[in-house]
Amino acid sequence: SNTSIICRMTAPGGGPAEPVIVKVFRTLQDGENPDVVVQSALTAEGSDRVPMAIGHLSGAWDSPVGGSPMHGHLAFAQEFLPGVEDAWRVALAAAEAGTDFSREARELGIATASVHATLAATMPTSETTRTDVDGIIARMHGRLASAIEEVPALAEHELALEDVFARAGVELSRSTLC
């Protein structure tokens, strides 16, 4: 859904500066991109657990179905951290090698908890309602229908996926509405 461009930067004095990664969104959505909003909120609060947000580009375009123009994020720039590995890939490598991943898993859990605490303190929160859960499940159904339209071979998995959606609705209700 995006193309990432790593930019080698020059400091004001002419020497090298920290690199920046620019994500150009190829799939535009009306409204704010959650990656931009979340990363920017964490940066504004001084979180050192995620790359620093540098800025974003927003714009407007005609709706493909007519009506009001659409608005949203077009690109996002953030600090690039060379050599940092994705935790999922690190965990997979440890599993394949049969090595202990418990220390890294604990550190990841601590970092994740810190990020979530910062987000809860800085961004609006609300109790989840039955309408919220129904909306999430409806969007899942809509995305499945779109995916099947694009890739008809997925239709053979539709019943199994519908079952997963039903179970997800029950679990969401159980965990958020209790």
Please render the helix and strand layout as text.
Layout: E1 2-10, E2 16-25, H1 34-44, E3 53-61, E4 70-79, H2 87-97, H3 102-122, H4 130-150, H5 158-176
Antiparallel strand pairs: 1-2, 2-4, 3-4
Helix pairs in contact: 4-5
Account of the 3D structure:
This protein has a four-stranded antiparallel beta sheet with strand order 1-2-4-3, with helices on one face. Strand 1 and strand 2 (16-25) form a beta hairpin. The mean pLDDT is 91. The protein contains five helices and four strands; from the N terminus they run ββαββαααα. The two termini are 35 Å apart. Helices cover 47% and strands 21% of the residues. With 178 residues, it is of the alpha+beta class.
In a nutshell, what does this entry contain?
The radius of gyration is 20 Å and the shape is globular. It has a four-stranded antiparallel sheet with strand order 1-2-4-3, with helices on one face. It is α+β, with helices and mostly antiparallel strands and 178 residues long.
